[in-house]
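JOB MANIFEST
job_type = single_chain_structure
chain_count = 1
residues = 97
[input]
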Amino acid sequence: MNEKRILYSECVRIYQVKESFIDSLGELGLVRIAQMESKRYVEYEDIDDLEQFVRWHNDMDINPEGIEALYYVLGRVRELQSEIEYLRRELKLYKSL
């Protein structure tokens, strides 16, 4: 795991969200929260996702459970798009024979 982290309290301050929101995302496995000594941190690699989740929450009033569902559905859409592109390349290859 990457050792780069941002203080949990900084995330709360920067993104102006309640601690319970980030805690919920952590419980759902959407962001990783690390405890070191007496301080909590959010993994730096998860910051882009956290920013997206905050936008979904603020702009569309989506709760953490809805964010989880949306995140996994969009991930599945990306997988399917990738598979479609692969199949298109394969089809193009076979058509050229």
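[summary]
The mean pLDDT is 94.
The beta strands are 5-7, 33-36, 39-43.
exit_status = 0
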